Amino acid sequence: MKLATRVVHGGERRSPGEFHPVSTPIYNSATFYYDSLAEIDRIAGGERAGFMYGRYANPTNQALEQAVAELEGTESAWSFASGMAALHAAILAAAPQPGDTILCSRDVYGATIALLLQVFQPMGVRIRLADLNQIETLEEELTQAAHPVRLVIVETISNPLLRVLDLDAVAAHVHAAGARLLVDATFSTPVLSRPLEQGADFVVHSATKYLAGHGDVMGGIVLTHAADAPAVDAVRKLVGGMLGPNDAWLILRGLKTLALRMERQCANARRVAEFLKGHPEIDAVYFPGLPEHPDHEQARRQFPDGMFGAIVSFEVNVRKTTDGSADLPTEVTRERIFAFVDRLKLILPCTSLGDVQSLLQYPLIASHRSLTPKQRREAGIRDNLLRLSVGIEDAADLIEDVKLALGS
Ligand SMILES: *Cc1c(COP(=O)(O)O)cnc(C)c1O
């Protein structure tokens, strides 16, 4: 069945009784019992599947996990209380030892880098950050590393410049070097790509974003092939980042419209990107759907026809003269960007993404706040860069909102 069908029906279970709920109930139960202790013994011993304790598994969570697993083409999925909890668990499941190296793409989600540097590095794991959008850099890092690279971490679509990796090539290089590949696929969702089928060992989603899609719940998902399932299962049981069943239900509900939402959001993003591209008050537009984006061909090859994600990043002209090419001091740029964002009436200035509402984020004060000016320059993030997560509203209204805020 096609994805748009599977998002609606995936994971839903029929009750054994005389009626069948259309929507999986929320099992607000911390523990489960059976008619005989022998049954519990069999479940505890792994002889049969079953529910015992809420930190191990819950029927509502399992419906969600099964639904996402089906979308990704696997049978192994786990839900977590947040995207970061999912990422942490996936890294632990890859079992980096003291002295091992984790190689991470430089332009991943800021908290991912902070997690590596502040949690894993103090445990003796070596952390290397590099521009893995260049396949030559990846090759060099893998072959010339003084210490074995255990794990490589990348995102399908990077943040905020929206670079798109050649995932098949990345996976081939990573496996040739004997390392494992963890892919954060939050920006692409299973609608755009299925990294497990392209060679990823671990896939992570912040379900807070597109999977749930309504800005009303937090969660994370880890997916693997069967061979890594026991490792992730053990980590979730022991570290305990289990998603609550109420939140699992909200995400499962949101998931049903994922295909519809993505279709609309990707189409809206294309229209907004086209509008911004032609606007005299916009210095630059970053969107993989534009032919001038460095990874346009890569995105066309990997994603379904006409879909390039629903995030558009752009630089606002804050100089207010057409000839002023010199960079303004950061404080002046900041104030002018603040004024532009404050003039928006519809698009919300929020730090999240992937919701039905359009959300605008300012990397300088949010996702990339902790970087030095030099680090930001190296990452290609200018002081006047904004990241827009395009929602499901009418594209004409979004364009009008930006137009008015730009003052033309
Ligand atoms: C938001 C996000 C995360 C973290 O997810 P939370 O649900 O906020 O913990 C990780 N990776 C990416 C790409 C994200 O956008």
Which short descriptors sum up this protein?
4-stranded antiparallel beta sheet; globular; 408 residues; single chain; binds pyridoxal-5'-phosphate; alpha/beta; 7-stranded mixed beta sheet
What does this protein look like?
This protein is of the alpha/beta class. 38% of the residues lie in helices and 14% in strands. It contains 15 helices and eleven strands. The strands form two sheets. It has a seven-stranded mixed β-sheet, with helices on both faces. Helix 7 links the parallel strand 4 (149-155) and strand 5. Helix 3 runs parallel beside helix 10, helix 4 crosses helix 9 (229-239) and helix 6 (135-144) packs parallel to helix 7. The longest helix has 20 residues, at 258-277. The mean pLDDT is 94. Pyridoxal-5'-phosphate (PLP) binds at residues 82-84, 109, 111, 155, 159, 184, 186-187, 206, 208-209, 218, 220.
